[in-house]
Amino acid sequence: MDRQLSDIQKPHYIIAHRTPAAFTTPADAAAWETLRDTAFASFLGICRDKTIKMEISDGDAENLDQGDKLVMGRNGKVEGILLQTKSANYTAYETIEGVAQDLLIYSESSQKAIFIPNAILRFNESVVSGETENVPFVFEKENFQNKSDFRTRFDIPQS
């Protein structure tokens, strides 16, 4: 494992979506640009800073007779808070709610990306006087075997 201080970053992610389709990790900058600009040209919207979250945690587990804990599966979750709140945006969210979408979470500055296939998003609404209206969203998946069953992480190719 390589230890570089330059790898410690605080990326600000953008989240895009598309109808589910075959995915291949881009091999070069041209393939990345095609993926980003063509396949994932639709953004969910502008998100509040530090609200796009993707996490994978232990799912079902068994305690074994020798005292070990055997994790039988994983649980994954993607969530965020959208600040796009024109009436047309609410209508657009309703059209994809409950419909499988591929998600691409990425940060150009940190050159990192996460692909999440077949996410079935739920959208909530929040209106508070004096605050920016927002639309929290979430996707949860339970009891998959490998982290790669939930997501594909990759570095954004630079050449």
Account of the protein in words:
This protein is mostly beta strands. The protein has a single domain (14-155), classed as Roll (Pnp Oxidase, Chain A). The protein is built from two helices and eleven strands, in the order βαβββββαβββββ. The chain has helices at residues 29-39, 87-96, and strands spanning 14-18, 42-43, 53-58, 61-63, 69-71, 74-82, 100-107, 112-120, 122-123, 135-144, 152-155. Strand 4 (61-63) and strand 5 (69-71) form a beta hairpin. The longest helix has 11 residues, at 29-39. It is globular and about 60 Å long.
Compact description:
With 159 residues, this protein is mostly beta strands.
Helix % is 10-25%
Within the CATH hierarchy, at the fold level, what is the topology?
Pnp Oxidase, Chain A
**Number of H/I helices:** 2
Question: What class do helices, strands and sheet pairing give?
Answer: mainly beta
Broad CATH class: Mainly Beta
What is the mean pLDDT? 91
Order of helices and strands: EHEEEEEHEEEEE
Distance between the termini: 23 Å
Provide tags for this entry.
about 160 residues, mainly beta, Pnp Oxidase, Chain A, five-stranded antiparallel beta sheet, globular
List the helices and strands and how they pair.
Layout (H helix, E strand, L loop, with lengths): L13 E5 L10 H11 L2 E2 L9 E6 L2 E3 L5 E3 L2 E9 L4 H10 L3 E8 L4 E9 L1 E2 L11 E10 L7 E4 L4
